[in-house]
Each structure stands twice: as structure tokens, then as C-alpha cells.
């Protein structure tokens, strides 16, 4: 046995074999979703068979979108039998398929003639950010949160090609996470205004995504007038709009009361819209 290893050529061969085995073992791992194969990105709901719903992870081991069918609304189902599962958007409760309202996909089982309007869903079951009603000429589009709540932002259908609702969604998310002092400014359609300040920093933002415009930098809020997107006519001397300033002042006063041990002081919280204007629900003198 020992003498085999004294021959260089055999040693090389053994090493080669080892390498090959290692490579082969690696290749046997199940493919992950970001490995070689790509998905057919152009597949649409219209390409699915009747009763099937296009969802993310519907094909290729959950890596690509695909059409999935299943038992229909109120049909008898069984969680343990593969061909008795409910279709996406439905859940099996008491051996019957009922609406799973935690996903937007349940709306695809609603009767369009009865409910009048079916929202648009993303393939992952969240609600699409932009929801349009009516026709392209006179209809309107509105911004929605992932879980289907109407949030700030709207425009006429005909103007909505570049409407993303990204700013509106971001603010809504941050506020739901408990931040009460978000100062991102959204345009009327829910996109980002060009100049943004939040958490003590300011930057020139991409209208559609809010990310920092190429070739520009993020600055401390005291230097916001140095940003290339700053325009004195447009922005003036303060980033905060009148309503926001009032709301911030109110918060500062509250903070001082608390610091002095005074509790139980309440204000009607001043609601500002995401564009910094007074919200729709401003109550003045109890009216
Ligand atoms: C600044 O804003 C005003 C008002 O919108 C506009 O008329 C002007 O062209 C802007 N100036 C620059 C340098 O962009």
C-alpha cells in the first residue's frame, strides 16, 4: 500500500479524484433560487388555466412564479391530501375552503359583479401599491399599503405611469413601526419629492425610489441648502412645512411638560399629510 504514495503520478491522480468528489458533492446540493436558471418573467395571470392563480414560488421548487390551482371557494378540502388542497387565497377550515383574508389573493375568488371592484395583488399575496378604479380617461389611482389599507397619494389614471407610491408606503411603514417624527415629503401621488430630510439628514432623492440621486451626497440637515436639488424659491428657509412645524412644536411642548413632571396634559394631535399640508381631519374649535 505504502509504495503507491511514493509515485508522484499516482498522488496527483488521487488528489484529482478527491477534488472531483468534492466538486461532485457540491453540485448535488439542491439548487437555490438564485442559482443558474432564470424564471420566465413574462408569465401573466392570463396565461394560467381557468381556476388557477399566478403566485410567486408557484413553480420550480418555489423559485419561480407559476400557476397554482386547487379546491374552489366553499368546496370540500383536506389539508393532508395533495389534490384536496384549497387554491391560493383560500384556506381549509372545517373541511371547507374559505377566504384567507390575510392575503390579497382571496379577492381573486370574489364575484366581480357583486363587489364591483377587485384590487390588484402582487404575486406574494400583498396588495399592489397602486390601485386604480374606473377607466384610463376619467378613473383614478390610489396608494395602498401592503395589507390593503388606503394610504396617502392619488392621481388621475391617465397620469399614473410613473406613480409608485413608494414614499407613501415608506412613511406608512415607518409610522406603523412606531416612529412618530418621520419627515419624508411625498408628492400628491405618493412618490418622493426631490429634496428629502429625515432623522437629521438631507439628500436629493430619486422620485420613484427615494434613494440618493447618483453623483450627490447625503448631508447633515444644517447643510441642506448646499444640496444641488435645493431651490430657495421652492424650499425657502425651512424644510418643515407649516403643519409639520406646528406638530413638532406641539411635541416639544409635551416633552417639556413631561420633563417637569406634569402629566395629563393632552392636545388634539395635529395631523399632517405626507406632503406636509394639514391633514383632512384637522379639528378647529371642536368643529
Ligand atoms: C426654482 O423653483 C422655481 C419655482 O418652482 C422655478 O421657477 C425655478 O426655475 C427653480 N430654479 C431652479 C434653479 O431650478
Protein described:
The chain is α+β, with helices and mostly antiparallel strands and 287 residues long. Among the domains are: 45-109, no CATH class; 240-286, no CATH class. The protein has five helices and ten strands; from the N terminus they run αββββαβββαβββαα. Strands 5-6-7 form a three-stranded antiparallel sheet, covered by helices on one side. Strands 8-9-10 form a three-stranded antiparallel sheet, with no helix packed on it. Strands 1-2 form a two-stranded antiparallel sheet. β6 (140-144) and β7 form a beta hairpin. The N and C termini lie far apart (98 Å). The model is unreliable at 1-26 and 281-287 (pLDDT under 50). It is found in: Secreted. Keywords: Disulfide bond, Repeat, Secreted, Signal. InterPro entries: Dev_reg/Prot_inhib, Thyroglobulin_1, Thyroglobulin_1_sf. Residues 1-27 form the signal peptide. It comes from Anopheles melas.
